[in-house]
Amino acid sequence: MLNFEYYNPTQIVFGKGSIARLAKLVPADARVLVLYGGGSAERNGTLAEVEAALGQRTVQRFAGIEANPSYETLMQAVEQIRREKLDFLLAVGGGSVIDGTKFVAAAVDYAGDPWEILETYGAKIKSALPFGCVLTLPATGSEMNSFSVISRKSLQAKLSFGSKHVFPRFSVLDPTRTYTLPERQVANGVVDAFVHVMEQYLTYPVGAPVQDRYAEGLLQTLVEIGPLALAKPDDYEVRANLMWAATQALNGLIGAGVPQDWATHMIGHEITAMFGLDHAQTLAIVLPALLDQRRAAKRDKLLQYAARVWQIDSGSDDERIDAAIARTRAFFESVGVKTRFGDYGIGADAVPRLIAQLEAHGMTALGERRDMDLALSRRVLEACL
Amino acid sequence: MLNFEYYNPTQIVFGKGSIARLAKLVPADARVLVLYGGGSAERNGTLAEVEAALGQRTVQRFAGIEANPSYETLMQAVEQIRREKLDFLLAVGGGSVIDGTKFVAAAVDYAGDPWEILETYGAKIKSALPFGCVLTLPATGSEMNSFSVISRKSLQAKLSFGSKHVFPRFSVLDPTRTYTLPERQVANGVVDAFVHVMEQYLTYPVGAPVQDRYAEGLLQTLVEIGPLALAKPDDYEVRANLMWAATQALNGLIGAGVPQDWATHMIGHEITAMFGLDHAQTLAIVLPALLDQRRAAKRDKLLQYAARVWQIDSGSDDERIDAAIARTRAFFESVGVKTRFGDYGIGADAVPRLIAQLEAHGMTALGERRDMDLALSRRVLEACL
Questions:
Q1: Alpha carbon distance A239, A232 (integer Å)
Q2: Which of B1, B197, B309 to mutate to test the interface with A (most CBs of A within 10 A)?
Q3: How much is the average pLDDT of A346-366?
Q4: Cβ of A15 and B8 within 8 Å?
Q5: Beta carbon pairs, A and B, within 8 Å
Q6: Are B198 and B288 in contact (CB under 8 A)?
Q7: Of A215, A214, A244, A249, nearest to A229 (Cα)?
Q8: Each residue of B349-385: pLDDT tens digit?
Q9: Is the ipTM here above 0.90?
């Protein structure tokens, strides 16, 4: 096992009816800004339930946080908070709303130009407004970690930051609040959570059986419940397990003490930036191709993955690896997320353009051993066609 | 899945050489009391390493915290802290030292008679001195939870308390610090961690596959590494995994959202109180007998346990349950912890005496369904003979 640190102070309040708990979770004298995305939180009653729980507190709203939350939008929330002297933030939504709220929380207090927060990856954050979350979309794990990804439209930039100051104080996870999600968002969430686990698991062995088995447990659970989450949108048990698995997939625990890859995410970000695909769509395209191209470096873990997650026990090593990758691809397809560039109308001419972007962004040494150069990324992208 | 709350703010610093990190983890101006047990921390160099890391800070020592930490001893530490105006505690040891330090931390600040802390199970704790831990014995999980068990010799009482104010600020887990532990303590730690998992896992299904697989992963890991931890005391990988598995076994995570039993612990406490057996010895005696007697109520989970932890897939239901219980018993014996009353010189006359104590302590409705009455406890105890 590698040396590690693990710290995660977010309080989780999980279950049906738990939004009412906001009455106690939010300080009684707080002046609250509720941040959310589009109108779905208004239409499906979640916002009303939240505001009822907040009772007599001063509550203002900030709507319109986008799917890739933008600096430009978020700075308007910062303005509102400063102007109205608000002191507690409540994110109601999925990963984008929560990521955006983290940036707002850090920017309100920030002494210099808030864009520095992103340019320095969060290193210069000294404090942040306290905030909580009401999760409505299981996917990113942002509700229980200290990371955030923010875009700046004017610069066509998408940057991430992290800081111990932007852990949510609490996150309310009520699975019933996901019943009305569109199928595509649920499917994307399943794929996103699955690939989060794979980035932290499918590397090379370091003698960390607890972390391995936790990761495998999450993968097996997502395999079981992914299709059910689509087929039975109001099945409490299925949605509860999807929610908890997605939170566990990226709260720091399964990645503590093991190597991490994240090349699929880095390549995927470039695809989203260039072609506007959903984040999860890019992951579903890149991961199977990457596993195939990296089968030598990842051999031991690929065989373990084949045996423990997919119960593939016969055939040569390469046959078992082939089968495990095929099952992974088929799983993504089974929840309706396509896994080839061609499915999204992207052709071979995209490859050199994406390579140029990876190079421009310094992504020339990716992966758990930092040995994935542009030539290898090119082969991965060609295998995505 | 049941509704749940999960909160655990303890920072874990894990790995070889991590004691040096105390230099940054402890506030620079802290006046520190280092609490420990017997002379082993002095003899094996851990205490010297700790004090070297603390550098120029004011550091005092408090030695002599016992295996079942006593109110009487701990109140001497409270005196010393008040007299010397110390403001940060550092527990160096295993579960007893950490449990004791939690009590001291809460008692120093406590307005009334500190014994009330235990009489009210921690409910009246309003604050506590900050403290950290340097773990030397993987077993109880106290390094990453907010619970503590304290004895008061004058009253022959052993009471537990819990409070969010007594989470360790940090815990340093350096597996090399366990190399010199006596075999018996290592074996006890393996059994203790295993039974902690079982108390939260082996109940009845509530549709919580993540928690189930996490628990099974810990059990499988303990089964693999338990005998190795004894055979190769200075194998870093083995000791690291034992340490992390034992911490994970009781930090609240695997028990979140599922029923919990704890009858084995409650009965075990009475055996320790009456006959002085090690805590883990009592668990190793009671658990196999309890699983056997509770096979109807626990049938589904026993079959799942047989299949997933022990790979027992053939035979009738009862045959598979028999085999799983036999494997459990054999595992405890394989690390040298005996599993029958007779092995410790305890005869049938103990049964009515223990039942009387359970009754005197109100333990008349134990287990995950609170349906384990004294008649059932008697059958369990008879099955321990």
A1: 9
A2: B1
A3: 96
A4: no
A5: 122
A6: no
A7: A244
A8: 999 999 999 999 899 999 999 999 999 999 999 999 9
A9: yes
Tell me whether A80 touches chain B (CB under 8 Å).
no
CA-based nearest residue to A204, from A267, A268, A261: A261
Residue B12's pLDDT band, with cuts at 50, 70 and 90, is very high
- CA atoms of B19 and A57, how far apart (whole Å): 46
Q: Do A1 and B207 touch (CB under 8 A)?
A: no
Q: B207: nearest CA in chain A?
A: A237
The answer on pLDDT for B157 being more than 80 is no
B216 to chain A: nearest residue by CA? A213
- Kindly state the average pLDDT of the residues A143-171: 92
- Of B127, B363, B130, which is closest to residue B265 (Cα–Cα)? B363
Shared domain for B276 and B166, answered yes or no, is: no
On chain A, the residues whose CB falls within 8 A of the CB of B309 are none
How many angstroms away from the CA of B317 is the closest CA of chain A? 23
Min distance B97 CA to chain A CA atoms (Å): 22
**A332 and A209 assigned to the same domain:** yes
- Residue A5 belongs to a domain: no
Q: Which domain-ending residue is among A177, A195, A217? A: A177
Residue of B11, B237, B240 with shortest CB distance to A5: B11
- CATH classification at residue B279: 1.20.1090.10
Cβ contact (<8 Å) for A9 and B6? Answer: no
pTM: 0.97
Q: Among A158, A177, A196, where does a domain finish?
A: A177
- Which of these, A221, A270, A255, lies nearest to A5 by C-alpha position? A255
**pLDDT tens per residue across span A225-270:** 999 999 999 999 999 999 999 999 999 999 999 999 999 999 999 9
Asked if residue A258 and residue A162 are part of one domain, the reply reads: no
CB contact under 8 A, B213 and A207: no
State how far the Cα of A273 lies from the Cα of A156, in Å rounded to an integer. 8
Model confidence over B183-198: pLDDT tens digits?
A: 999 999 999 999 999 9
Residue A3 resides in a domain: no
For chain B, the straight-line distance linking the first and the last C-alpha, in angstroms and rounded, comes to 37
CATH number at residue B136: 3.40.50.1970
Question: What is the extent of the structural domain holding A90?
Answer: 11-177
pLDDT given at position A39? 83
**pLDDT value at position A12?**
98
Q: How many other C-beta atoms are found inside a 10 Å radius of the C-beta of residue A78?
A: 21
Residues of A in contact with B5 (CB under 8 A): 11-14
Query: Which residue in B2, B3, B197, B206 has the most chain A C-beta atoms within 10 A of its own C-beta, making it the best mutation to test that interface?
Result: B3
User: Is residue B346 within 8 Å of residue B354, measured between CB atoms?
Assistant: no
Per-chain mean pLDDT for chain B: 96
